[in-house]
Specification:
Elements: E1 2-4, H1 18-32, E2 36-41, H2 46-49, E3 54-56, H3 58-67, E4 73-77, H4 80-89, E5 95-97, H5 106-109, H6 113-124, E6 131-136, H7 141-149, E7 153-155, H8 160-170, E8 173-177, H9 180-189, E9 197-200, H10 211-216, E10 219-222, H11 234-243, E11 248-251, H12 257-262, E12 265-266, H13 269-277, E13 284-288, H14 291-300, E14 305-308, H15 324-335, E15 342-345, H16 347-363
Parallel strand pairs: 2-3, 2-4, 4-5, 6-7, 6-8, 8-10, 9-10, 11-12, 11-13, 13-14
Antiparallel strand pairs: 1-15, 5-15
Helix pairs in contact: 1-15, 3-4, 7-16
Amino acid sequence: MATSALSLLPEDYVELSEQELDDRIAQAKAQLGSRVVILGHHYQRDEVVKFADYRGDSLKLSRLAASRKEAEYIVFCGVHFMAESADILRDEHQIVILPDMNAGCSMADMAALEQVEVCWEEITSRVEGKIVPVTYINSTAAIKAFVGRQGGAVCTSSNARKIMEWALTRGEKGLFIPDEHLGRNTAYRMGIPLNEMVVWDPHEELGGLTEEEIQRARVILWKGHCSVHQRFLPQHVERARKDYPGIQVVVHPECRWDVCELADAVGSTEFIIKKIAEGGPGSKFAVGTEIHLVKRLAQENPDRFVISLDDCGCLCSTMYRISPQHLCWVLESLVAGQVVNRVQVDEETRRWARLALDRMLEIV
């Protein structure tokens, strides 16, 4: 399990103006110098991510932080499971900090360790062949450690297919946790028909499945999803094409299966960024992912037309909890010699979770 030294933002930071925050963050960062590295996830708000030394997805950022051996402190402007991943991969002298401990992930929270253990016991007792678990990196350290102990591996949205192919060559069935949409989209593109996939609902007896359904399935999907990407619907795709003839619809594989089937391209965050960069002047894109990234892509590519697939906007509300006030506070605390909001994974969990991550890196 991960321990989190929860501290609350002092009230005096709330009253600071935008300029005061910018000045104080820059000053604290300069005072700390190479002792600190700030990581900013792609979905982070602009007023925070502008101070990041690195910008990227969760695994890329964790690995970059681990490569900065001179940094004593890793400040992760993301969500809790990302900070855990950084703590799993860090050097022994490094400390990981999450500016606001309330920045969680609803998807990761949909798969509790006790629920997964019950699922594992139920399906392994009913299936003769080997089952290999795969967990999306958007999961808790406890789930990564469970998968590591059971011979499985972690995956990202960009390498999910390779990891699932690996799992299904090692076993007759795969258990994919916690995002059913990424699991379904990946398996379908591998040629596995929908009727050979089932969804395990942890809130139902035997996952809401029959023994026959479990035995027949090649892939067992956990009932979990991203609250942002699940909002995109087929009618959003149809409306974008009607309103903007010739527009390309590009979506993240955490979106629903029917949305991904209608899209022109499906891929990870890095894929989406590259796709738009390569689109050329005058190209048009409707993007199915988090709104902060979509707006940033539009700003960084002014000669391209870039909009959100859903014009109501799809905000990662938990990521949004990381504010300039929180960033300023944790940096100034470090200047004063105090660590607040440290995220620390216990050594046993860290060891098994690291094994699951290392398996992924060996495969890809």
